[in-house]
Design brief:
89 residues, alpha+beta, Arc Repressor Mutant, subunit A, three-stranded antiparallel beta sheet, two-stranded antiparallel ribbon, 5 strands
Amino acid sequence: MKIKKDMILRKIGSDIILVPVGNAIKDHNGLFMLTETACFLWEKLPECNSVEELAQKLFDEYEVTEEQALADTMEFVNNLSELDIIDRN
């Protein structure tokens, strides 16, 4: 999977924020708050070729079932896809 938009991940205190930069600013007006899990998935996105591979990383890192890891990962990826932030291919 490929990140299509310029985003910078910032950790401010206990908050984790994705900030659009460059051309992404005109497409995304505002910041994106991430949970710890979403931050983990965001950081692993560039090294994964599929939702299943990304879900496996989540499963390996956190104490969740494989089904829950896949469901959470699919929701995260679908949200980013709908916002046109990532390319799932």
